[in-house]
Amino acid sequence: MACMKLGSKSDAFQRQGQAWFCTTGLPSDIVVEVEEMLFHLHKFPLLSRSGVMERLIAKATENGEETCVIRLDDLPAGAKAFELVCKFCYGVKLELTASNVVYLRCAAEYLEMTEDYGEGNLISQTEMFLNQVVLRSWKDSLKALQSCDNILSYADQLNITKRCIESLAMKASTDPNLFGWPIVEHGGVMQSPGGSVLWNGISTGARPKNSSPDWWYEDASSLTLPLFKRLITAMESRGIDHEIIAGSLMFYAKKYLPGLNRRQGPSESSTRLAPAASGATLSEEDQKLLVEEIDSILPMRKGLVSTKILFGLLRTAMILKVSPSCISNLEKRIGMQLDQATLEDLLMPNFSDSLETLYNVDCVQRILEHFLAMDQATDGASPCSADEGQLIGSPSLVPLTMVAKLIDGYLAEVAPDVNLKLPMFQALAALVPDYARPLDDGLYRAIDIYLKV
């Protein structure tokens, strides 16, 4: 992680419990309260660098108190930022890094640490470090963006969040081997403008291996959902392929939604969610929000996401009781590519508290209806468009035939359920057009099982 050293004096601060003391040998003449921390300091170093401190000290001095007490209630990042601000004011050595520069930039703005209060003041120093160092690096931009999350309103006001997001979006949308900044840093490797590997800032002439389009998925998944959503939106505006965007969304979903990382059969039809395998934990309310956000961002296109993952999202959505519109959209997405599903995918437990069917037959029926509606909309084969001889073996009929076989297999699996009423069984079986079944053996088998039960 890049850093910039400020100040030259040795550290003159000591912490004792909930108080910081400046050990310069001079008695303290000001106490600054920030959160639960007390800073015992000296007036001049503060008022000579900060417009806010100058005014507050002047106001407190008017009261004639020997030691003035000032409280900073709304300082961005609180005591941890003010500690570094104090070191800067006293000229003590400190390091600007991608992890603390946002805190310091916002704190400096709050305290009015402009050039009017000394050349090379904290606002100008942090701005220079942000623009010339942090935003030129993928890793540092990411760290800075992560730190924005704790003081988001301040970072947004100063346009820092947007700048970090735009920096990341630009780097993700550009071929790392052609890009002029050090983007690819996996394993600590930096790249020169020509794409060659840098060692201590010197080009070695070696070129790193080409990065796959998903090289940024893992890093982006470390962001909180609001920041991740803003990053993805920025990437979409830069024209990144929908397939890559969808891949990043599913990577994020798998990391935080435990329902996508394990199979669940009817014997495990619990409405509770286990912790995610990655160790990342979200409350069920946050998981619900994540599913709904993914649905809102993901383009409604066939093939962007595997059918198996879509079924996993749908099961999770039902457990979490997300909005009906979200569940309906997921059913439509699956319906668009139902021919790619397996029987195991369709066997979704019924998560209703009432005594109903073991499997969610109603949901499968809705998914099938979406598939048939889409098949008709895309001029799928039908008796109206060709005679029987032309239909048999027609390429346009293959998906429909596959779905017909899948539904017949599903009917045979759910037939033993004593709670499955005849109208429900009959309605699902009748949805499949007759011309989609070259053979009726699968349907007869399902009917036979149902009648025996």
Automatic annotation (TrEMBL):
SMART domains: BTB. This is Phototropic-responsive NPH3 family protein. Pathway: Protein modification; protein ubiquitination. It comes from Kalanchoe fedtschenkoi (Lavender scallops). Keywords: Ubl conjugation pathway. Residues 28-98 form the BTB domain. Belongs to the NPH3 family. One of its GO terms (biological process) is protein ubiquitination. The keyword Translocase does not apply. The keyword Secreted does not apply. InterPro entries: BTB/POZ_dom, NPH3/RPT2-like, NPH3_dom, SKP1/BTB/POZ_sf. Residues 214-453 form the NPH3 domain.
